[in-house]
Amino acid sequence: MPKNSRPTLTTGQGFSAAPDSEREGRVSGHVLKALRRAVGHTQESLAERIGVDVSTLQGWESGRRPLMAVSTGQYFRLRHLLHRLGAAPRLLTQLDTALEADRFLGYVLGAGRTVDLESHPLATWVITRPFTDLVAWPFIGVAPAVLAETGSSVRRGPTGSGPELAADERQHISAHLRAAAEQASRDTVKGSLLRRQAHYVTGFDTSAETAEWLAVMQGAEKRRLRAAAEWSPSWAVVRSGAHSLARKGDTEALPEFIDAHVSTDACETANLNYWAYWLGEVADPQLADTFMVELDVDAWRGDRMLNHLTGKLDPANPYVDIVVHSLWALIIRKPGLLDDRNAASTTPIVLRLLDEGTVSQRSRRELEAVLYALRMAQRR
């Protein structure tokens, strides 16, 4: 493709949207299978406990009989039974979120070339990390951590180790999301939300066409966002775009974003608030990206964020620069988070990363400031 040409939006060859495609079940089916295995039941024994034919349970787990098609009463009976059998609440929450992920996949697979910009699922709420992990699963083949920890979601069998997408389905989803991002309004909060989230989810597609499109889109977004500008919904689009490019191997995307676009109090606040939402410190669902600057940073604790960020201080992490910057900003804003115990456990991690010498100069300066704060905390 010529250097300056724009990647075209085309659906998969031979793909046709099924009229009942909102009755999607592949993600929730695999989560249900992980839950069944976690509570130590076979398909036959669990089907007997539920009071359904084993073929019905097999259909739910395979996605052939979408779980979202059952009655609300039947779903809650299943959920309550799994809870009584010992399923952890975190896993049961994953099942609820998997239904939302299936609804999203079904909506996109059933959508034609025209994008409904008002009712699109990515225009109606700020998606969460659990939802995104489940949507990414059939693209990247990596189970969400909460499922992988059970050891039950990765076993292989006749139905595969996880939800899968056929090649034409992947192409259709990617083309649809690219169209949504390109058609969404750049002048409204809702349009920016759709643009940002479609941009981000598209990044899970591994095709070369999508990688080139992401780079083109990010360049266009950055030109619209002035360097050192105050926060705007477009800022959030560029932030997500930088993360997508980093995931694709662009080592300059995040350092450039931090240097150019995280230089004001509002943008620092937005970055921290988004982390808090992403990691579940902010429990309430958000309807627009404006929460990033409207939410008081003191409204959430930060313990979960501190633990997450210190656990991601790894030179192999493609997001390491934004992790370092966010950790530095979090400690400045909430110094009381540091105590003897977490300071002692974090110090060697920071020292190892400094010794690696692989992070940017800015990250190195921020790590040195973090190290100073950790040592001061140990002396208190």
UniProtKB/TrEMBL annotation:
Q: Which Gene3D superfamilies match?
A: lambda repressor-like DNA-binding domains (1.10.260.40)
Q: Which domain of life is it from?
A: Bacteria
Q: Where is the composition biased (Polar residues)?
A: 1-14
Region annotation (Disordered) ranges? 1-26
- Spell out the SUPFAM superfamilies in the cross-references: lambda repressor-like DNA-binding domains
Query: CDD domains, from UniProt?
Result: HTH_XRE
Domain named HTH cro/C1-type is located at 32-65
Protein name per the record = Helix-turn-helix transcriptional regulator
